[in-house]
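User: Sequence in, structure out. Go.
Assistant: Echoing your sequence, followed by the structure tokens.
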Amino acid sequence: MPAFRAPGRVNLIGEHTDYSEGFVLPLAIDLECVVRSSPGGDVVHARSHAEPGEVELTPDGGGEAAGWGRTVAAVLEVLSERGRSPAGFRAEVTSTLPVGAGLSSSAALEVSLALAACDAAGFELPPVELALACQEAEHRASGMPCGIMDQLASVAGKRDCALLIDCRSLDVRAVPLPRDVAVLVVHSGMPRALAGSAYAERRRACEEAAAALGLRALRDATPAQVRDVPRARHVVSENARVVAAVEALERGDGAELGRLLGESHASLRDDFEVSTPELDALVEALVAAGALGARLTGAGFGGCVVALARRANAERVLFDALARYHSETGLEPTPYDVRAVDGAGAVPA
């Protein structure tokens, strides 16, 4: 039975910049979605170990679909539009990714399903086209106008590296991570709730700011042009921080990386207004415990924080920070010491 894996991702820096054609710096992580597939038949039947219900659809996505089944239907639909023949298969879905944490569980599901569907039909898309198809499936399934980062990071991940993604050209460059630095991810205990249309509102504000300046996207704005527009000011300053973070990684400057993460969180909190008191408390606890720096990761409104720490004292940083956070909030945080892994593909037999 062929199987296909797709990793989630954590974004080191570059939040809410991808849909403004900016820069992001994620890494594919060793938490993943796996689809085991049995090709054959004239329908697509899928079941998940994590989600209720089973899904049965036509190979082009037709039929009744609710909940996570909408993602299955959307993936099949966009692949059919790109030329996939109507081949059926059975899919069994498992995942080690927490749902609603901001670690791209939905993108990992889309990419692993797409790989299984392509394999069943003897169909193939180039990596970037596969990511774009899965991005479109996300738009259709959830109504969320997400950028390309999540799907492209899942497809293009590189072991032991972060990925500098130019969200305009879709060029990807692997940036090695320092061996003595650990990437720590902590779930705040607050599920990520995108507050209905809050994500779409942020995107719309960025598009309106670019249009007011006569620009294609905020990628092209200067700091002076957005000085008095907080949402746009975040995007422009965050793009600059991504470039600076890559330079800091390349020279092994952990202190500078930590400073940039702190600035990113402050900008997301104050200018973009997507943080929460719980995320702020978790960031503060990690820094106080000795992390080089920390920030919310993902869209915000709950979910996870990412931190960098010297590997030699990462365990102590987590222990102290989680104890303080629980004492202050009463919430149970969940830590993940993640590794950067290669992108999606077939699971070796």
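User: And one key feature?
Assistant: The mean pLDDT is 95.
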